[in-house]
């Protein structure tokens, strides 16, 4: 058995539930980051919606599909002289 910070033992079921919750939080964070990247792209609104829906409905598989074929953040580099230094 694992022990909690206070020294109390943690059951296997509690440990599995805690790991599942942490994994769920990690998936949600990655989803939000990808949706932000999709939103920043210069694609049409329909395309952005479709990519965001794919990432939300099929999280891990959607990440791979987006990574291979999806829109990226800014399509154009900044054009101001300040950014080209």
Write the SSE topology:
Blueprint: E1 2-3, E2 9-10, H1 12-40, H2 45-57, H3 59-69
Helix pairs in contact: 1-2, 2-3
Question: Would you kindly provide a written description of the structure presented here, covering whatever features stand out?
Answer:
Helix content is 62%, strand content 5%. It has helices at residues 12-40, 45-57, 59-69; strands spanning 2-3, 9-10. The protein is elongated. The chain has a domain at 28-73. It has three helices and two strands, in the order ββααα. It has 85 residues and is mainly alpha-helical. Helix 1 (12-40) runs antiparallel to helix 2 and helix 2 crosses helix 3 (59-69).
Structural class: mainly alpha
Strand order of the largest sheet: 1-2
Order of helices and strands: EEHHH
**Alpha carbon gyration radius:** 20 Å
Q: How far is the N terminus from the C terminus?
A: 57 Å
Short description:
62% of the residues lie in helices and 5% in strands. With 85 residues, the chain is mainly alpha-helical. The protein has a two-stranded antiparallel ribbon with strand order 1-2.
Q: Which keywords apply here?
A:
single chain, 85 residues, mainly alpha, 3 helices, elongated
């Amino acid at each position: 058995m694992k022990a909690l910070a206070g020294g109390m033992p943690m059951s296997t079921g509690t440990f599995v539930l805690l790991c599942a919750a942490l994994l769920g939080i990690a998936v949600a964070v990655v989803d939000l980051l990808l949706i932000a990247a999709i939103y920043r792209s210069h694609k049409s609104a329909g395309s952005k919606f479709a990519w965001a829906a794919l990432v939300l409905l099929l999280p891990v598989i959607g990440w791979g599909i987006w990574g291979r074929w999806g829109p990226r953040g800014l399509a154009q580099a900044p054009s101001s002289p300040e950014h080209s230094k």
